[in-house]
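Section 3.1: Structural characterization of target chains.
Under the original work plan, the team committed to producing a structural model for every single-chain target entering the pipeline before any wet-lab resources were allocated. The record below documents one such target. The sequence was received from the expression subgroup and is listed exactly as submitted; it comprises 226 residues.
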Amino acid sequence: MSRPRRRAEKPVLSQELVVKTALGLLAAEGLEAVSMRRVAQALETGPASLYAHVANKEELHELMVDHVLDFGPIPEPDPDRWVDQVKELLRQNVRALTSFPGIAKIAWAVQVPTGANALHQAEAMLAVLRAGGLDLKRALFAADALWLYTKAYAYEGAGWQYGDVDVTMQEERGRQMVEYMTSFPPGTFPNLLGAGEYFSAETAQERFEFAIDLFLSGLARSRMDS
């Protein structure tokens, strides 16, 4: 007579497990699926048991963002490489914020991240900017602007990457815009009519690099004026 199989023991509930489970749901089913109740179901427990580890859905969302921001060692600030170090920090943030569907949207909603990884990333950016010769005020203003642009870029890019944007509808809208602009007298919108080839998925990375290059070259010049 065969013995009945013992049911595998459930892992001990922890904040890390709750967050990883939520990210798994995010990857599989999208942002709408991530609720305290749905995470509890995935963990085969009741929602009340999660509150010992996560206060509410808002904290869960912030913890999810903070989890993806753990992307490796913080660079040692190098005055000779500060521009490249800033660029790499921003690129890593884009990769992190597009690693799951919806995570960029959550990051956009979190006005002031307070997680450990977010704080380490912010401190690293400030340290690199200070190594580049900026005083604290300019470093703070620069970091704020760079993070804002990076989050916006990731938010838009994730929408295309994960199918949140209706490509067919966007193509039709583009066709309608061209049709509308060409209805005006010739020469009214010569630059806008030539813009189409420069705005596509293929040029997205180039546009991102152009923006941060422009910003950082301005920062480099501002050091001489201070």
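The chain has eleven helices and no strands.
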